[in-house]
């Protein structure tokens, strides 16, 4: 008890950081359409999910998720025939940080795709998690 009285600020910091962790965990559980890089990798490997990268060409060639399909956000509406074939399988959408892919998710859902997920943190989050990046052009 004496330790806590003398070091109350450390105890308060520990309680506050723990509370933030709990809140963030609960917030992420509520959003089932957002996947961490590890969850995305599991979905790619276990459920044969398709990754669609909606960044522009110059961003894509700098590095992308291996085997990702490149469909820029601006071209998504024009490539509906290609997307029609993917309606029944899981689709993971990614961009640089997660903003454009949210817009792409809405478009894909309007096209009838049911299992659409956003890669949390985009390609930046993917790389921070130590996941592989390809620079191959198709």
UniProtKB/TrEMBL annotation:
Q: Which InterPro entries match?
A: GlpE_sulfurtransferase, Rhodanese-like_dom, Rhodanese-like_dom_sf
| Membrane-crossing segments per the record | 6-26
Q: Can the keyword DNA-binding be found in this entry's annotation? A: no
| Record keywords, A-Z | Membrane, Transmembrane, Transmembrane helix
On whether Iron is a keyword of this UniProt record, the answer is no
Q: Where is the Rhodanese domain?
A: 45-135
Pfam families per UniProt: Rhodanese
Q: Which PANTHER family match?
A: FAD-DEPENDENT OXIDOREDUCTASE, RHODANESE-RELATED SULFURTRANSFERASES
Q: State the name under which the record lists this protein.
A: Rhodanese-like domain-containing protein
Protein source organism: Denitromonas iodatirespirans
């Amino acid at each position: 008890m004496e330790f806590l009285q003398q070091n109350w600020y450390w105890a308060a910091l520990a309680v506050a950081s723990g509370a933030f962790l709990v809140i963030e965990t609960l917030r992420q559980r509520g959003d089932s359409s957002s996947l961490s890089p590890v969850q995305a990798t599991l979905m790619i490997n276990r459920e044969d999910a398709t990754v669609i990268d909606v960044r522009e060409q110059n961003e894509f060639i700098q590095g992308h998720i291996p085997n990702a399909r490149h469909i820029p956000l601006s071209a998504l509406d024009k490539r509906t025939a290609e997307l029609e074939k993917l309606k029944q399988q899981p689709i993971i959408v990614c961009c640089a940080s997660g903003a454009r892919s949210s817009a792409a998710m809405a478009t894909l859902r309007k096209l009838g795709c049911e299992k659409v997920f956003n890669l949390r943190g985009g390609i930046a989050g993917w790389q921070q998690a130590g996941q592989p990046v390809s620079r191959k052009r198709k």
